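FORM 7B: Structural annotation worksheet

SECTION A. Query
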Amino acid sequence: MLHEFLSTNRAAIIARTRAKVAERPAPRATEEELEKGIPLFLDQLIDTLRLSPVSSNAIQKGATLHGRDLLKRGFSVAQVVHDYGGVCQAVTELAGETNASITVDEFHTFNRCLDDAIAQAVTEYTRTREQSIADESTERLGSLAHELRNALGSAMLSFQTLRMGSVGLGGSTAALLGRSLSRLSSLIDSSVAEVRLEKGIGTPERLSVSELIEEVEVGASMDATARGLSLAVSRVERGIDVVVDRQLLAAAVANLLQNAFKFTRPKGSVTLRTSSTKDRVFIEVEDQCGGLPPGKMGELFRPFSQRSSNRKGLGLGLSISRKSVEANGGEIRVRDIPGTGCVFTIDLPRLSPAA
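SECTION B. Predicted structure
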């Protein structure tokens, strides 16, 4: 019986499938996929084939649960299809090498199980994903409205107090007004960047990195001063250029700085520095947040994720930064310095001076 062959050779099939999946160029295999996804695929097939006769409803029910589970685990639709295909190839090869006594009807049933499982898993994945996106959009819109209202409310109250003449322009009320306006500007810039990313709107241009850093430094310095922090910006050599969408890259750097200001300890320092090689440009933002809590490294760039118990803000800044950098052909990394802080690095292709 086919299910007995699969059960007996489970370890060998999993090993073969993992090897096949690990070698594919795209989508790249993940540790979660190799360690948990593939055994899950195979076990569900074994349970389904053990039924006599094999029930289409059982296949669809198992695949529906599987598709839902895949979304929770962070798998993509492409991974679902490729992993089922990997299992099929591994089973077929091993059966041929061992001369297993599997009938043609059983192989037909096996392939039908795979086809039905793929179709149902993808259908359920898509349905669940669409619902998740709709829920996230509603949550994001509500959070954005709440943040805008709070910032605008603080700005209006500060302005009214200043207009009455009871306080001076150099006091805490004026500082609150400045922070509120800065917060409004940041929220609007992030929202515009997110819309451009979702719509695929980009205008690549040759950009001097030194000019970009100078532009970002102006607003960031005022924000740091208003928060009682210091901002150190290293000088950038002229002639270091990249081809990027200026607005998206500026939003990425600004969001990293906003994040650093938010979590740096009182009276602490944030550093913005740039370096380059022949082929790459690195923009780094180092904070003094004290380091990351255990287990938080993998969650940093997820939407609505917060780095600590400080729940202020939308939790979208780092997510938008990553998407903005990737849209410009680069990548973003983070290095934790326990007890001190974090270093976020934007890595971009450098434009050849001769280009």
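SECTION C. Observations
The chain has two domains: 2-134, 203-349. The chain is about 60% helix and 15% strand.

SECTION D. Sign-off
Analyst initials: ____
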